[in-house]
Amino acid sequence: MGNSKFPSFTDGCASLLKKHLTKEIWEELQGRRTASGFTISDLIRSGVEQEDSSIGMYAGDAESYDLFAPLLDPVLLDYHGSSGPHPAPDFSLDALPELSREAQENILSTRVRVGRNLAGYPLGPAISSAERREVETRIKEALAHLPDAIQGAYHSLSEMNQTRRQDLVARHLLFKSEDRFLTSAGLMRDWPDARGIFLSRDEAFSVWVNEEDQLRIIAMKKGGDVTAVFRLLTEGVSALSRHLDFLTDPRLGFLTSCPTNLGTAMRASVHMRLTGLATDEAALKVNAEALGLQVRGIHGEHSQSKGGVFDISNRMRLGVTEAEAITHLMRGINHLARMDAEAAPL
Ligand code: ADP
Ligand code: DAR
């Protein structure tokens, strides 16, 4: 049975968990447990232990999104502006806008990733070590069928030396091996067992296995050709979907451990030089949020910007299609580039 004491949060905590977990909802959800044995205490453990969480929750299985909906749905609405129904996938490229010249000139690299999990298994916070190994085996089998253009090799984290691992992380290709938010959520259990990365020969296409989600399918290239990177991502996703049955929900789309990644489960990002706007990062984040964008540092979440370079990405993943999210990002990037040119020191 989970801890029945209503969690206390310090004044400094600003998570959506703190904002939406009322005593009434806490009482209503007490005693509920999913078929994997996941409880409300499991769902919120990360946000209780890591008070600087922005969200503070990770689901343990598909059932969590129904059983704990009284808490999760208000959080989804707050974060995405939607709690479903999620539209059918749309990866079409023909109506994407053009990036302005001033935007293109300031984009160092582009990355588009989607999270996916396998149907028939719990999500990372509730999966067993045996199930996690089965997931890794199934994904490796599917990777063997990728088209030759994106073929490469799978690298198990257990068999990877530190130097190689640190190099891949430093080059933004591999996930970090320490994350206190994921640890509190139970996502780092048995680490590094059954974790790894598939890398295509040119390193432009990769697949993370059993980190925060069972798959993170990633396309990444230098420069600002967002359409080309989106096309590469689409090729990889459709190839893998021919060999894997992904976990989906009729209302929420693709299911992921973190509620911020539902729906498309897609984050499209550019590393963009914004030297004008970098003089006031707080204002940049407010302006970006107003454009439906999210600002991260150059090493992703919870990292700092460097040399006026920021990770700019779409914030909304649920309630929009993939093509709409990319369009939104590209329009937002053009707007930020104009604002940056006006703010640039004379
Ligand atoms: P995720 O995007 O997978 O949710 P993070 O924000 O932690 O997770 O980013 C993962 C890694 O991808 C980090 O090393 C980050 O620097 C890198 N990354 C994200 N976007 C880009 C980009 N446009 N160009 C280069 N690296 C990127
Ligand atoms: N750090 C957690 C997760 C927020 C969203 N990012 C993810 N899922 N990687 C938080 O609640 O802040």
From TrEMBL:
Top-level taxon: Bacteria
Natural source organism: Desulfoluna limicola
Similarity remark: Belongs to the ATP:guanido phosphotransferase family.
PROSITE patterns: PHOSPHAGEN_KINASE, PHOSPHAGEN_KINASE_C, PHOSPHAGEN_KINASE_N
Residue ranges of domain Phosphagen kinase N-terminal in the record: 1-81
Coiled-coil zones: none
Residues annotated as domain Phosphagen kinase C-terminal: 106-343
InterPro entries (UniProt xref): ATP-guanido_PTrfase (IPR000749), ATP-guanido_PTrfase_AS (IPR022415), ATP-guanido_PTrfase_cat (IPR022414), ATP-guanido_PTrfase_N (IPR022413), ATP-guanido_PTrfase_N_sf (IPR036802), Gln_synth/guanido_kin_cat_dom (IPR014746)
Amino-acid positions noted as binding ATP in the UniProt annotation, renumbered to this chain: 109-113, 172, 216, 267-271, 296-301
Protein's recorded name: Arginine kinase
